[in-house]
Amino acid sequence: EKVIRENWGTRVGFILAAIGSAVGLGNIWRFPGVAYENGGGAFMVPYLVALLTAGIPLLIMEFTIGRKHRGSAPVAFRRLNKNAEVIGWWQVAISIVIAVYYAAIIAWAGWYAFFSIGQQWGSEPEAYLFTDFLQMTPDLYEFGGYQLGLLIAMVVVWAFTLWVIGAGVKKGIETTSKVFIPLLLVMFGVLVVQALTLDGAVDGLNAFFTPDWNALVEEPKVWLNAYGQIFFSLSIGFGIMITYASYLKKKSDITTSALTVGFANSSFEILAGIGVFAALGFMALQSGTPIDEQVSTGVGLAFVAFPTIINTLPYGADLFGVLFFGSLVVAGWTSMVSIVQVPVAAMEDRFGWGRKKATMIFGGGMALVSLALMPAANGLMLLDVSDYFINQYGIVVAALVSIVVVVWVLWKWKELRDNANATSTFKVGPIWFVCLGVITPIMLAIILFLNIRDLLSADAESSLYGYRTYQAFGWSLAGGALAFGVIMALILRRRELPELETE
Ligand code: PHE
Ligand code: NA
Known about the structure:
Elements: H1 11-22, H2 25-37, H3 44-69, H4 73-80, H5 85-115, H6 125-133, H7 148-167, H8 169-196, H9 201-209, H10 213-218, H11 221-233, H12 240-245, H13 255-287, H14 298-311, H15 317-351, H16 355-373, H17 379-409, H18 413-423, H19 430-457, H20 468-491
């Protein structure tokens, strides 16, 4: 008998959920710094090229595979070809690794939203973060030293995530996306307006937007960084968008949705660039140092630079802090839901588990691993190394393999093209093929090659990842994800797929 697969309630609901996945921490803490370091205003050119030639074409591929084959990544790939299931499980493994550490960052941001009230981090935000708050050890392998506060916040993050996933695609994910994405826009919008009123904001914007055209010609890395940013930013390459699209109705538009999600995500990145650089301009003026020295990304930007800025704000410091860290929580959490949905849906689809059971057993298992590892004193180190390896190697390789297999090995692009075009107002054709099948894999392959070369030549003094023991950890993680995929696919090789579910 055929099971009825859940569907998104509305087209807007699906698009908001996909935007919720795409718009994440990376938009706020990664994009502004990356753009600045890679040509400033001139970065918009390679960035737009990367969006149009790689981001949106791959998004269209993933949406089409998900909708056509109506399954989470392993099932969808198996329906494409019996031997392709391994790709789906590999993507599941990558999602598990990301979910384990992503929850921690959301928990930190939650605490910092609270600390913003009265600037509880005091006058030395950097010392506060590493010594008081994280009580961090610089040794990756020194386990133990739990932070109760972190543990509690992470329990909240996981409980809320699993509760929403357990509630289902429509009632859980769609409903929360409809609330949180508009909320994020309002919160971040108010923050940007306040940032623009600060002294020095204009200098910040000038620094951000002034184009360095030479960079585009003289530094090929700028182009690669634009492509790298797009894959990460759109959450493509490891099953998220396939999973979300598997709940689409048969007749839903594919290409217009992909364009909408792609441009919405990029718009939010540029908005974040404006907000962050207005604030950095203010900080540069306050401290009398050039903006150059203020620019950072990631943990340093969010948890050191921003508290420093907030400490010196002329008015509304508490509100500014709550809005900034609240935005990180909301943006991060909607991405978190999309990551956790990948493994949970895979168990559901492939083993015929009910949604509640899959969420409780598999989601709960992930939560336990996350809670056991991340609130410890070496949590930040684990996070750093995992994030680096899984992004630079896991996602890039998985994306590359999935494209080459789908387009070249299985030669499915025509079938997917026809499937997408049948219900889309905006049609794809040979240009899509060239972008997806030629340009994107070439760029991914170059990025991968250069990453590996850099890593192998890195010495311990110049970079964290130069340590051989860290590389051992990172490679085991990236390799382990692949091994997990292979093992799952082998175990399930003889096990028939459930029948294609109807609407
Ligand atoms: N797309 C998210 C961002 O820009 C990042 C992300 C990566 C989200 C992996 C989910 C999974 O921040
Ligand atoms: Na993004």
